[in-house]
Amino acid sequence: MGVLDGKTVIVTGAGNGIGKECALLAAREGASVVVNDLGSDLKGNDQGSSASAAIVVDEIRAAGGDAVANFGSVASMADVRTMVAQALDIFGGLHAVINPAGILRDGMFHKMADQDWDAVIDVHLRGAYNITRATVEHFRDQQEGSYVHFGSTSGLIGNLGQANYAAAKMGVAGLSRIVAIEGATKNIRSNLIAPFAFTRMVASIPVKDEASAQRVERMRMGMRADQVAQLAVALASPAAGLVSGQIFAARGNEIVLFSQPRPVRSLTRAEGWTPRSILDQAVPALAPAFTDLGVSQSVFSYDPV
Asked: What's the predicted TM-score (pTM) here?
């Protein structure tokens, strides 16, 4: 008996990488799956083929599962509504959304083109809004539903050259949190995963020297998309119970629960503050609790388990 028996799940970006592994595993765990993939390249450019979603559907059906392909874009509300209608018309229901669809348009912020900012925000943040808004009323009516959104340590911690991606992903984190809060009384859950996996996104990292080549190879061997899928499918399952509003990372065989912003230290001055007193008193007192400017690698500096 699978953890998604009798459920219908939409998986976005499911033609490759994490999305593909989520779709395959959801089907093995008993779900009927809408396999969504636009068929674009890593930057979101149309490749003129949507075959990847159909190939995943064929693989699911060959293994005895039930799936249908969808070739729409999460950045289009019209496409997303068609995706939802497809799930309801073909499978008679919808119970969970797993949403790893994404693109990259990396570049240092001072050189970033407006279109690269807009494209990443559209797919990640607007896409998360679209798929959530198009399904949330259905979930509320049936008093059951689960969202598994995808964030990134680029937003949670930081990475060079990914201001657009980080901003979008932190927006998704905020969206997921509010959906979890507002949906609690209707048995709607929403969680976020910051994934570590060797996908075509990671493969696009420039290899500049032997050390970076070795690091990329360790990532390829130790952090697989199917390992991330295990957590995503678990969170999509109703068996996850009260798990909602949380931020996780999946890194190899390691599952990480992230803290979320809460006050770490405060300082009060009865007579109030001036710019000078803030600089002379508040800043030195608060400085030991400041967060450093280290990037993701400074926090996850060890090899995957």
From this structure: 0.92
284: Cβ contacts below 8 Å, ≥ 6 apart: none
Residues labelled catalytic: 165
Neighbours of 256 (CB within 10 A): 15
**Domain total for the chain?**
1
Per-residue pLDDT tens over the stretch 25-46: 999 999 999 999 998 766 666 6
Could you tell me where the DSSP H helices lie in 29-162?
51-62, 77-91, 114-121, 127-142, 153
**Tens of pLDDT, residues 270-287:** 999 999 999 999 999 999
Q: Would residue 100 be called left, alpha or beta, if left means φ above 0 and alpha means ψ between -120 and 50 degrees?
A: alpha
d(CA 52, CA 23): 12
Range of the domain at 50: 8-260
Which CATH number characterizes residue 194's domain? 3.40.50.720
